[in-house]
Specification:
- The complex is a heterodimer of chains A (48) and B (292).
- The longest helix of chain A is centred in the first third of the chain and has 24 residues.
- Chain A contains two helices and no strands.
- Chain A is mainly alpha-helical and 48 residues long.
- The termini of chain A are far apart.
- Chain B is 49% helix and 3% strand.
- The chains are: A mainly alpha (48), B mainly alpha (292).
């Protein structure tokens, strides 16, 4: 990949990442992450 | 500037073990919870840490990216997580698999196991197994997005059936201090504990088997190695083709031929091994001097 193409891909992905984070936060995904993370994940520890 | 970059590369590779230890402690800083059977319930847990670190670890400060992704897609509200996917993209573009080499507690755990003095075996003959982690990513992390019940809820397949970190960081510390949790452990715990035991045994004789063959987070970050802002480079003018970097690499990567190979975890062993300081880390958008 040429240098300038790589830079374009990097910038596009950075902007995409930020945009996705903001969109996901705006539709309430952060609260779901938090609500799951503050409780013991029974599946994760093998209780199911 | 070259001398400064070389010093930074040398410092990073020299102090990697300390950095890994610091990251592990900082991402699991709520130490009193290991004694009282609680987990941290603060708002910092809405943020993902970059490595594989179970949020059911009593000390965990933030959330596991894979666990968080699975939590959102298995909820009835959403079948896809832009928030977590965007976070993973950012981590990938900023650092690539440097996260595996420096910022993942489970990676450090395997590094420590590998230090146990035993006969070591090469993983070169098992090169095909590297693709297994991409299958794990597809089948156990991505596919659950599509498989939901009538309420629109799914199961966190990777976390539930495969992830050994949940047992190491979550089940074991919690079961040690909580009678309730200890009595509730059943067949699923037995299966995952078996997997953890297998990873531990393999990690003593093979270097980072989980990272090479099974980790979906490593598989995701590997996709970004060629385009991440942090990259490895080899200075063509300084390289004397001695092969010491290739011998030093335990991820079976020839950095002189493929400096940003998908399997490179940017651990810096090649940087340490190079007698002419030809191998270095680079970061950012600026144009580099000619390299291999």
């Amino acid at each position: 990949m040429t240098s300038w193409k790589k830079r374009v891909v990097q910038i596009v992905l950075l902007l995409t990442g930020v945009a996705f984070i903001l969109y996901g936060a705006s539709r309430g995904e952060v609260e779901i992450v938090l609500s799951k993370a503050v409780r013991i994940c029974l599946e994760c520890i093998g209780i199911g | 500037m070259d001398k400064k970059n070389n010093s930074l590369s040398a410092i990073l590779s020299q102090f990697r073990n300390w950095i890994q230890m610091a990251v592990t402690i900082l991402t699991n800083i709520h130490l009193p919870n290991f004694f009282n059977g609680q987990i941290y319930g603060g708002r910092a847990k809405m943020i993902c840490v970059p490595g594989l670190n179970c949020y059911s670890c009593p000390g965990a400060v933030g959330s596991c990216p894979i666990g968080s992704f699975q939590a959102v897609v298995s909820s009835s509200g959403f079948n896809y997580s832009y928030y977590i996917f965007g976070t993973l993209i950012l981590f990938g573009v900023l650092l690539g698999r440097f996260i595996c080499g420096f910022l993942c507690p489970f990676g450090w755990f395997q590094d420590l196991l590998y230090k146990i003095p035993t006969k070591k075996l090469s993983t070169k003959r098992f090169e095909a197994l590297r693709y297994l982690k991409y299958m794990v990513l597809l089948l156990l992390v991505v596919l659950p997005v599509l498989v939901t019940n009538s309420l629109g809820m799914g199961d966190p397949w990777f976390c539930k059936y495969l992830c050994p970190q949940g047992i190491l960081e979550g089940a074991i510390p919690l079961a040690l201090v909580s009678d309730g949790i200890r009595s509730a452990l059943g067949a699923l715990f037995t299966w995952k504990a078996f997997l953890l035991g297998l990873v531990i045994l393999l990690s003593v004789v093979f270097y980072r088997p989980f990272c090479k063959w099974l980790c979906p987070l490593g598989a995701f970050y590997a996709l970004f190695n060629k385009i991440s802002l942090l990259e490895m480079s080899v200075n063509k003018g300084r390289c004397i083709s001695c092969g010491k970097c290739v011998s030093a690499c335990k991820m079976d990567v020839d950095v002189t031929k493929h400096p940003n190979h998908a399997e490179c975890i940017r651990c810096g062993m090649c940087v340490k091994a190079c007698p002419t300081d030809a191998v270095r880390y680079n970061y950012g958008f600026k144009k580099r001097r000619k390299s291999i």
